[in-house]
What does this fold into?
Amino acid sequence: MRVHFSNIKIVVFQLSLSLLVGLTGCNLLSGNDGSKDKTKSRKVAQVGESVLYEDELQGLTIPGMNPKDSVGLIKNYIDSWVKRELVLNEAREQSQVDQAEIKKKVQQFEYDLLRYSLEKQYVIEKLDTTVKKEEIETYLKSHQELLKLKENIIQGVFLKIPLASIQRDSLASIKINRLLLDKGAKRIQNLRDFCVKSAEFYHLKDSTWVALETLIASTPFMEMGNKVNLLNLSKIQPVSRQDGQYVYYLKTRDFKLVNQEAPFEFAKSRVVELILQKRKVQLIKKLEEDLLKKAQKSKKIKIY
It folds into this structure.
């Protein structure tokens, strides 16, 4: 097996010049279908019986691209192709490589991919995504384990403020605590106005149940061993912690602990997900049954 690396380099240079002066014969920028007759396309490189043709380089570069970058991009692509083909040729020639097993896996992969595409499109077209409250309640009655919390959850406000912002204003901490303790009708709006200007991240939906550890992940709050104390304290007043870059604030409105019963709204999302998954499975089963009936009716199936 011979690979002419010197010839490859010359062709790369020639192709790049042709591309840059806009020769229509090369047509590397057009993005046309590369399925045209290869006998009409010039060879760029060859490894054993594998050939890379000029039209396979379509779309690699864009108009106005720096000439040096264009040359390098095309050369790198051809070099990568050569290395890939060398590895493939070596694998094909190795006696210990089980070609039959590889072919079997390729066929299985193609089958799985085609099946997945068909099922996905069928589900998109047929799936009813409406889940009524009564259906959720019925599901929960027969799956009580879903109501048992596996993590601490809270309703509350969480803020992540750059330390530099706090340090610029000596009254910043007082202002933030006042906003977090405010119970007025405009409390959330006032907090949002502040956060838009000053916060790196914020969670203000204190009527929504969220997992505590999801909210405080990668913050100094995680280092507190007793999270129950943190929750109890933050329900009374805002709790803050800081690291080298940020100050974090937590003010809890309500919380539920591990093994307690989950609020309906928190369990709802998980139940909806499970119900929809069950519907998907049923749809795919129906697809298989319909295809079988259709094939039997048209007498496409023969079992010997």
